Structure formats: C-alpha cells, structure tokens
Amino acid sequence: MPVDFTDSAGDAEYRARLRDFLRRHDHELEHSDSEYLSEPGVERIEELRRTQALLYDGGYVGVTWPREYGGQGEGAIRQAIVTEELARASIPGLVNHLGIGMCGPTIMAHGSEDQKQRYLRRLLRADDMWCQLFSEPGSGSDLAASRTKAVRQDDGTWRVDGQKVWTTFAQYAAYGILLARTDTDVPKHRGLTMFVIDMSTPGVTVRPLRQMNGASEFNEVFFDGVVISDAERLGEVGEGWRVALTTLMNERVAIGGAGNELGMRTDSLVARARERLPHFSTGEQVRLREQLGRVLVENLAIRYTGYRRLTALARGQTPGPEASAGKLSAVRAAIDGAELGVRLSGPDAAFARAADGDWRWHTTQASMPGLAIAGGTDEVLRNIIGERVLGLAPEPTPGKAAR
C-alpha cells in the first residue's frame, strides 16, 4: 500500500498550530524524556491529569473521536501528527490512556446513548480516570475463563462477586469496564457480560501490587456483593466476549501503533550511547553500536508499518489482526532498547541506577515483562497471526469450537 509522508497543506497548517500551542503553554505542561516523570513510587497523576485537560481544551485529545462525544472529528493522520509533536516536545503520553485507547472505544461501540453522553467527554479530559477489569487469578491468558460472577437480582440490578488482578491504575480510576460471568450453563464464551462499574461503589476493594520496577501501576481488585444497575451494561446479556474483543483489538492498536516506542524514545537512547560509548573498549564499542543499529532499525520498521496502518484507517478500513503483529514487534523493540540502555551503564548495570544517578533504563527494563503480557501474551498473539494472517490450522483449544 503506497504511503505519502508529506503533510498536505491543511495538515501542515494543523501541525504549525499545534506547535504554537505547545510553545505557548510549555510552562503549564508536564515534560519527560522517558516513560516516567520521577522515581517509581512517586507518581504524578494529578499533574498528568492537568496536562491532559489542557491538551483537551486546546483540541488535541480525542482527535479522531466524533464531535458529539467530545472529540474533534478529525482523521487518523491528524492523530499521528499530535502523537509526533507531543513526543517532539517531550510531553509524556496521556495519563488516561486506558480510557482513551480501550474503555472509550468500547463504550462508543456498545454503550447506550446515555452512557456515551455521561462518560466520554469527561474521560477525554481526564476528569475521570478509567481502568479495565479483565484478568483474573488462575485464568492466565484465557479471558473467557472469567469466574467473577454477576447475578441478576429481583429488582433488575446485578450483584457482583469475585476478583480481578493486574488492573492498571485501578487505584486512581473513577470507573472501569468489567467482564463478568452471567451464565454458567452455556459454553464459556457465551456466558459473559460487560458492565461499566463505578469504582467507589460499596464492596469494591483495590489493593496495589508493588512491581519489580518499583512502581505500583497494577492492582488486585475485589468485589464483595457489589451492586450494578442494568443501565450500566455494555451490550446484550451473554455478549460480553464480543464486547471484550472490541476492547482487546483497540488495546493492541494502542500499544503497537505508529510511532509508539513504548516509553523509550530512540533519541534518548542515541544520546546515551554517544555519552557512554567512549568508556568501553574498542571491541565492546563495536558490539554496542551493532545492537544500537538493530534497535533503531526495529523502531523504524514499526513506525513505517504503523504509517501503513494509519493509511488504511484514513481510508475507512477497520484494524485487523495486523495490530497483533504491531504489538509483538513494538514490545520486542522496547525490550531490546531497554537492555541496551542498561548495558551502556557498564559495571553499574548490576545496580538499580547508573553512577550518574540515571535510573530510567533499569526501570524501563524491569517494566517490559508486564508490557509483554498487556493486550495478550506473545503466545496468544502469535496464534492470532498464524490463524488469521498465515491461514494455519488453529491450535486445539477445549471449548473453542462451542463458541
């Protein structure tokens, strides 16, 4: 598919307006040259929420979303311009990225008009943070094996009991989308239903999990007799698997999208290599330069493959299984880049930070295993690519034929 990398006259004007906006508001926006603004454990959520609100008020959040739901009604190319310019200005990713990338699109596709009006505009502005309540202890990557139960009561409400785990930002979220089992007498893929849940509802308990990178982004979430109105259901009863697929596909697009380098800008890595390489022997310099070259090529391939996907989106095509390949490649490149950043620390690589106090590379490296699981494990995504792209025979899975 041919791709034109030159801005049209309208896009060039849009880019210039955005650069001017970022310049004028530079002192009001949070900045970072890595995934983290500060040491892990010192999250700056409120500062990031203010940054997202300012960008939204300027018209640069929800670029492709419909105007009636708080968006700008622009095309995918304009969203790519915003992503590029925010990176260029060292503005970190939007703090409510789970809401924008996963929860919001799910509500737009399956929610009622009342839900769309109540939730989407506030989500874009980060007035409300969102989380995604899918994974459970003991279920691994088998999302359809969800055991959290939602039982309909005589008054039409639903009583929820169970547990979720690895829920990102649940401790900050006002709302979440919850996948629960509503029927145990049908094949597992048919007995699920999706809900919007107010995280302040009595019976919801959030317990942060300390990760090996020092942060507490993930959480356990417990539900003990939590009552949810039927008006907060997303889609029909028993259609939760289909609704969840909408969420997962958008998640993979978000993680593996064009220009997304998963918290590590390659210009930062190049600057670190330029500074650190003279401290190594000639032979080691050669090996490190080769590794740097591979990382840069990987990221260029991801970027330009993403541009092809953007071209398809701009033509009105729906993201398909290629998003799985993009996510796989993006995580692999991020792992390679983080490993190189740590290796460039030399003898200090064994410690949590370099001698110069730079902790970012060690923290990013420690974050990568969790990111490799988000949006589907590597094994699940390879199965999707094998079956839907390469046309290979599906892997035998108990209960899969009964969907």
Automatic annotation (TrEMBL):
<dbReference type="InterPro" id="IPR006091">
    <property type="entry name" value="Acyl-CoA_Oxase/DH_mid-dom"/>
</dbReference>
<dbReference type="InterPro" id="IPR036250">
    <property type="entry name" value="AcylCo_DH-like_C"/>
</dbReference>
<protein>
    <submittedName>
        <fullName>Acyl-CoA dehydrogenase family protein</fullName>
    </submittedName>
</protein>
<dbReference type="InterPro" id="IPR013786">
    <property type="entry name" value="AcylCoA_DH/ox_N"/>
</dbReference>
<keyword id="KW-0560">Oxidoreductase</keyword>
<dbReference type="Pfam" id="PF02771">
    <property type="entry name" value="Acyl-CoA_dh_N"/>
</dbReference>
<dbReference type="InterPro" id="IPR037069">
    <property type="entry name" value="AcylCoA_DH/ox_N_sf"/>
</dbReference>
<dbReference type="InterPro" id="IPR052161">
    <property type="entry name" value="Mycobact_Acyl-CoA_DH"/>
</dbReference>
<feature type="domain" description="Acyl-CoA oxidase/dehydrogenase middle">
    <location>
        <begin position="131"/>
        <end position="226"/>
    </location>
</feature>
<keyword id="KW-0285">Flavoprotein</keyword>
<dbReference type="InterPro" id="IPR009100">
    <property type="entry name" value="AcylCoA_DH/oxidase_NM_dom_sf"/>
</dbReference>
<dbReference type="Pfam" id="PF02770">
    <property type="entry name" value="Acyl-CoA_dh_M"/>
</dbReference>
<dbReference type="Pfam" id="PF00441">
    <property type="entry name" value="Acyl-CoA_dh_1"/>
</dbReference>
<keyword id="KW-0274">FAD</keyword>
<comment type="similarity">
    <text>Belongs to the acyl-CoA dehydrogenase family.</text>
</comment>
<feature type="domain" description="Acyl-CoA dehydrogenase/oxidase C-terminal">
    <location>
        <begin position="238"/>
        <end position="390"/>
    </location>
</feature>
<dbReference type="InterPro" id="IPR046373">
    <property type="entry name" value="Acyl-CoA_Oxase/DH_mid-dom_sf"/>
</dbReference>
<feature type="domain" description="Acyl-CoA dehydrogenase/oxidase N-terminal">
    <location>
        <begin position="52"/>
        <end position="125"/>
    </location>
</feature>
<dbReference type="InterPro" id="IPR009075">
    <property type="entry name" value="AcylCo_DH/oxidase_C"/>
</dbReference>
